[in-house]
Amino acid sequence: MKPWMSAFSVASALFLAFACADDDKPLSDSTGGAGGESGAGDTGGTASTGGSKTTGGSSNTGGSAGEGQGGGDSGGGGQGGAPITCDPPEPPTSGSGDAGGAGGASGASSGAGAGGDGAGGNGAGGAVSSELAIEGSYTDSFMGHQVITGATWTSTSDFGGAVFHIASYSNVEHWVVARNDQTNDFNPCLWSRFDWTEKAGVLYYCQAAYAADSEEAARAVPASDASDPASKGCGGSFPWTALTPE
Prior knowledge:
Helix content is 30%, strand content 23%. Strands 1-2-3-4-5-6-7-8 form an 8-stranded antiparallel barrel. Strand 6 and strand 7 form a beta hairpin. It has 246 residues and is an alpha+beta fold. The chain is built from 6 helices and 8 strands; from the N terminus they run αααααβββββββαβ.
């Protein structure tokens, strides 16, 4: 090769090497930075053609995090709900249909009262009784406790407790209708009916209704079978619950 051709080849090689080195550099460090900042905003780095555009595009991750946090807050608001609330009924001042004398009410409760013939309003004289005939504190068949007043029936056991607000009762027909307290674990604010009877000197009760929609619906529930309370008749074939005075 001639000397002048050799020199031309060396010069050409050096020129190409420098040109390639320049192509590997970003167009502008400042332009790339601007792209990153723009990406961190709303446009995702579209203002930059430099390598830092990828960094700008990562703003999408930030946006997703923000949306996720917002979704979490919104979801949290849906948990739970407003608690069930209701006002207890006014306690009855006397038994429903129990206009007979005190002897009549006692006779209906124990079967031995003087003056009661088993029908409301047919007691023979005496002052009208305004008390529920089975008021008192009892231990039941399951070692729970039943406290009955003219206003409430309170049941407690090792498994919890419940309060029922008495709306009406009959000493003659042996039933109590009450509204379930709003704090009861089961069927709050619905209605219950308790039947009671006495057999061989033992007082028994049966909760014949526990989730009726109204006082009238609870009262309309058929009376429990009291023919053999120690063995059957509550809810069909179940025994009634015995109450022992405390």
